[in-house]
Amino acid sequence: VLSTKTDLVEVAAGVNFGSSTQNQTFFGVTKAQSARSGNAVYKADAGITGTGVGVTWRHSINQNWVTSVSAGAVHLSKVVSDSPLTDKRTVAGIGATVGYRF
Q: Which of 13, 26, 53, 86 gives the lowest tally of CB atoms within 10 Å of its CB?
């Protein structure tokens, strides 16, 4: 979006896909897990797990110091949002870093 000698602004968008093994690991609940936790049994199939957007601004203070600020959001698909382990369908986050280049 923007690129100067000291600043870089990037915008990103993406689609996340999970295999049945991956989705079951993170969002599924087996019979044994259900018996221990009280959560309902849930089988997470393969498919698109969510879509997301984000923006990052990186600023070079000088030759050595750099800062960045990022923000993004992910909207989970029905494949994983129906899991009893998922309480929100859309999640967002922000972050900031300070770095030193040698």
A: 13
Reading the block at residue 17, the tokens are 């896909």
Predicted local confidence at residue 1, as pLDDT: 87
SS3 20: helix
The segments of the chain whose pLDDT lies below 50 read none
Residue 34, both tokens: 């259900």
